[in-house]
Amino acid sequence: MTLVVEDCNAGEPSDLWLCEDQQGLGYTCMVSFSLLYVEILNGNDGTVNFYESEIDADNDVNLINISNYCTTTNLQQIFARAVIDGNIAASSFSILIASIPIVTIEAVTCDTENITYTVIFSFDTNVNQVIPSAGTATIDYTANTITVNGIPVSDILWIEILSDSCNNGVANVLSVAPPNCG
Questions:
Q1: Under CATH, which architecture does the 16-98 domain have?
Q2: What CATH number was assigned to the domain covering residues 102-176?
Q3: Is the pTM of this model over 0.90?
Q4: Rounded Cα–Cα distance for residues 115 and 108 (Å)
Q5: What pLDDT digit, counting tens, does each position of 100-109 carry?
Q6: Within a 10 A sphere around the Cβ of 39, how many other Cβ atoms?
């Protein structure tokens, strides 16, 4: 069987950069295809289906269950088949898996009312966002540290760190009970 692909003004999908579900697992089940529909349909009405092989896409068999899809392979190629105004457009993209940021406490200093935490992070790329539960966060990219100042001595510190190398919303959350500052 020969698949005839017509020019139907379909767009090319971008590769997906996703973080693994948990540190060290190397896979993710948090794959969202929603933005790819927009890119592929390119403003047109139509349908898009996704496949793990080009042969499946050509034959329109073995569709990926997009509501429950896991990828265990870094740099996995996915094939898309769009039907726009009766014409078929084929494309592909890759799913790339990045490591979750690693975060550890390096130092804790106390004064009478506040605590300062210094946190070391390990990233493939820069930190995109640091959200402390209280106080203010300062990021030093050259030293790979985050300093959080102004945490009341009785508060638990929560830091949520999102990496800009992932677009599936996976973050590393660090929870630190207040130290004994007495």
A1: Sandwich (2.60)
A2: 2.60.40
A3: no
A4: 7
A5: 766 677 777 7
A6: 16
